[in-house]
Specification:
about 160 residues; alpha/beta; six-stranded parallel sheet; 7 helices; about 10% strand; globular
Length: about 160
């Protein structure tokens, strides 16, 4: 099983909470389903010299599931919105609501070109997908019982997909 982990780099600055969460998630998911999974993430799966735009499109297409980490930074990232656009019509999308989005769960790029208009329109579709709410756990350590329970529950849900 391959899961594309779509996140905004701005949300993973020191102390790298999303990296730590992703690593803990992979361990629990592997234990839950009984075999090793692949969490596809740009920092590991893009190699020097890759055409990153083409490679990311391929990585999204090749994944079984698409897991966006929703936050204001996510919706303000054109690359995240492109990844979501590549996934939205052809992948099972399993969003995690990571940080409150006071301006809404959508992007609002300046509509001065066709791509921005298309991304703005497409991004609103994310609200049609049921998400798992991680906002209240975001500042807890991954070894906390609450975070471990959350990861157990989403791993069980993924195993049922």
């Amino acid at each position: 099983m391959k899961i594309f982990w779509s996140y905004a780099k701005l949300d993973d600055q020191k102390p790298y909470k999303l990296t730590t969460l992703r690593e803990a998630f992979k361990i629990i998911l592997d234990e839950t389903i009984g075999f090793e999974t692949k969490i596809v993430v740009d920092v590991h799966d893009l190699k020097w010299g890759d055409d990153w735009y083409e490679k990311l499109d391929h990585l999204v297409s090749d994944a079984d599931l698409f897991l966006p980490i929703m936050s204001p930074s996510y919706f303000n990232s054109k690359m995240c919105m492109r990844e979501l656009n590549w996934a939205i019509s052809k992948k099972t999308i399993i969003p995690i609501y990571y940080r409150d989005c006071p301006k809404g769960m959508h992007c609002s790029f300046k509509e001065n070109n066709a791509e921005n208009k298309d991304l703005n329109k497409m991004s609103a579709k994310i609200t049609t997908f049921q998400y798992k709410d991680f906002r209240y756990l975001r500042n807890k350590g991954v070894s906390s019982e609450l975070v471990q329970d959350f990861l157990d529950k989403i791993s069980i849900d993924i195993d049922r997909i």
